[in-house]
Amino acid sequence: MLADHQFDIETVEKLEALFGQPAQASLAKELDHIDEYYRQWIAASPFLALATVGPDGLDCSPRGDPRGFVDVVDAHTVILPERRGNNRIDSLRNLISDPRVAMLFLIPGLGETLRINGRARISTDPALLARYAIDDKQPKVVLVIKVETIFFQCSRAVARAGLWDAARHVERSSLPTPGQILERVSQAAIDGAAYDAALPERVKTTLY
To answer: What sequence ranges are listed for the domain Pyridoxamine 5'-phosphate oxidase N-terminal (predicted)?
Structure first.
């Protein structure tokens, strides 16, 4: 059952009337630069979701590496190496036309998350590529991101999800595998069983 459109909220005034004003702490936590405490949070994170926007729509995709993989250059700049992926490069395509980015950092075991909004440029500077090599394999590009706002998000969402609670983790066998999905959506043009059989080794050998 879909919601009746007569109940849609279409103005900021109606939103504010419904939710009220944010508490002082919700506003005070937002900075236009990275301070020492937020720097420590970034250094502890091995994972983030990167959101971009472009002429063909929105994209939100995962990024992960050993913790501290996002390098804080100074109070207003971070660098994100672009590791090997599926070559769709949806995020990078978007950044060609619109430099705006949003990042949501997760830290395993913590309920709070960290948010950064800013603007990114795509760089192939040889010195930077060499600096962020892992196992002698360089990223093809890095994102140099100018930080415009940074703030932490409270733990309610992670607590409600039970994200770090092992008792609530999903058994992999309870869901379709990547191969099964690919075989179905490709109308059997892709052999799902063969894809699944090769996937663990392919992930292992193509991380970088």
So the answer is: 35-154
